[in-house]
Amino acid sequence: MADRKAKARLEVRQAKPSDARAIAALAKRVYGEFEPYTLREIRGQLNNFPDGCFVAVLDDKTIGYCASMRIAGDKALKPHTWDEITGNGYGSRHDPTGDFLYGYEMCVDPKVRGTRIGRRLYEERRKLAEHLELKGIVFGGRMPNLKRFWRRVDSPQDYLDQVVAGKLHDPVLRFQLANGFEPIGILEKYLPEDVRSRGHAVQMVWRNPFVDQEESAKFRVPRGVESVRIATCQLQARAVKNFDEFIGHVDYFVDVAADYEADFILFPEMFTLMLLSAEEKELNPIEGIEALSRYTPRIRKALSEMALRYNINIIGGSHPTQMEDGDIHNVAYVCLRDGSIHEQEKIHPTPNEAYWWNIRGGDSIDVIQTDCGPIGVQICYDAEFPELSRRLADEGARIIFVPFCTDSRQGYMRVRYCCAARAIENQCFVVMSGNVGNLPNVANMDIQYAQSCILTPCDFPFARDGIAAEASENVETLTISDVNLADLSWARAEGTVRNLADRRFDLYHIEWDEGSAGGDRPDGPAPLHKGGPGGG
């Protein structure tokens, strides 16, 4: 009888972005005593250093997870908190030149403890540290029995000493000591949410025996090439007879960008407004937005079919969409060449959008996983709020697409200057695309001003003035440029300035309200300019 090899029940492997939801569910099962991770934090961990994140999967169910990052010894071995060292949980302080591996998460499903899942995950970390020739592994270890024995010890250090001496029992510390880690001190107020450890942790170290600990290791980021080709479409407003004529103009630019083998094409904010020229009479702003919203299913379908047909990722500017509760939101439809459709709502409607068009703001901004890595989308005015870009960068975004719609040069420059700042602050590429021209019979498109562009950080690997490419003002055109994502990795680790790495997490960080109902109209009097976008 032929030998039939049974499928392995247990797999320990590198975690992937598609594992994020399963990891979040695991964390919820494990950490019932305090707030588990959000999906956004897990995405950040997986995107910022995928090589350092591992999952254990048993019978197709995720039962274990560990996350780690590289960091310099002078940071890892000195006192710190969990929020400070991890970049508020996103793993965004990963340093590809760091000489230590820092483990900041290890969780195993309680139902499978005793099957050595934790030991297997620790072994993956150890193999990674040895492969990278790092000096060792550092982490802050929990001591969950500290609360129980608090009255019997003088301090957290006394508790540690008694556990090491075998006088007290702590299952976590015992496990870590058995795996070759040595305690070097107490990290006070390491994780305040960890009530059982009274917020403290033990600073644990494993030193790589295959590396000279006295030698000053110097790691460099390879100046490799990770090329992505980006096209930004500066679209001319024109009267159209029907939907098919409109979508034909869009199809033309997608086809041209695909001929140039672009990976992405970006269209402007509210690029579908020209559909209102097909109406029998001029509609007021509210009527116009409601009429546009009825095109939403056809817009989604057409863009998705183009992305598949032309093998290109399409960031579909933005389009007003009626939500289930009846509110109108300004939504960017991101149609990827694998057939998937993603949505990013505009978070901050401008005063004009809110007052004249009754557009409400969305409540969530997240990275979108693509075949070129994670990206972010910020619609026009949103680029003027730095917290949003920083969140996308923490989640791993290296390209942020900004479709915009501005009627004046002042409005355009507000968006342009802010986008340039976002590229510098987050050491990422920012791509802008706007409308040009006018439609006299469409109240919302009296005049348009744009100069679409692809912006870079300002440092040696990039364009001298921080502009990879830009279009001529107010002319319909397609602007294409190659960008090297590997340059961002180098700049973040070894650049003249390192904005992401140098943040003072001991002084400040952003707290996000995950349960926000949001979307309120901006306060203030009625805008002076009636019906126009008033963008930026």
Chain-wise SSE layout:
Elements: E1 10-14, H1 20-30, H2 39-48, E2 54-58, E3 61-71, H3 73-76, H4 82-86, E4 100-108, H5 117-131, E5 136-141, H6 156-164, H7 171-178, E6 182-187, E7 201-207, E8 227-236, H8 243-259, E9 264-266, H9 285-293, H10 296-310, E10 313-322, E11 328-335, E12 341-345, H11 351-356, E13 359-360, E14 368-370, E15 373-377, H12 386-394, E16 399-404, H13 409-426, E17 429-436, E18 453-455, E19 467-470, E20 477-484, H14 485-494
Parallel strand pairs: 4-5, 8-9, 8-17, 9-10, 11-13, 15-16, 16-17
Antiparallel strand pairs: 1-2, 2-3, 3-4, 5-7, 6-7, 8-20, 10-11, 11-12, 14-15, 17-18, 18-19
Helix pairs in contact: 1-2, 8-10, 12-13
* Residue fraction in strands: 15-25%
Mean pLDDT: 92
Helix content: 25-40%
E-strand count = 20
Report how far apart the termini are.
73 Å
Indicate the radius of gyration in whole angstroms.
26 Å
Report what the structure shows.
This protein is of the alpha/beta class and 536 residues long. 27% of the residues lie in helices and 23% in strands. It is built from 14 helices and 20 strands. The protein has helices at residues 20-30, 39-48, 73-76, 82-86, 117-131, 156-164, 171-178, 243-259, 285-293, 296-310, 351-356, 386-394, 409-426, 485-494; strands at 10-14, 54-58, 61-71, 100-108, 136-141, 182-187, 201-207, 227-236, 264-266, 313-322, 328-335, 341-345, 359-360, 368-370, 373-377, 399-404, 429-436, 453-455, 467-470, 477-484. Strands 8, 9, 10, 11, 12, 13, 14, 15, 16, 17, 18, 19 and 20 form a 13-stranded mixed β-sheet that branches. A hairpin with a 2-residue loop joins strand 14 and strand 15 (373-377). Helix 8 runs parallel beside helix 10 (296-310). The longest helix has 18 residues, at 409-426. The chain is elongated. The N and C termini lie far apart (73 Å). The model has no long low-confidence stretch (mean pLDDT 92).
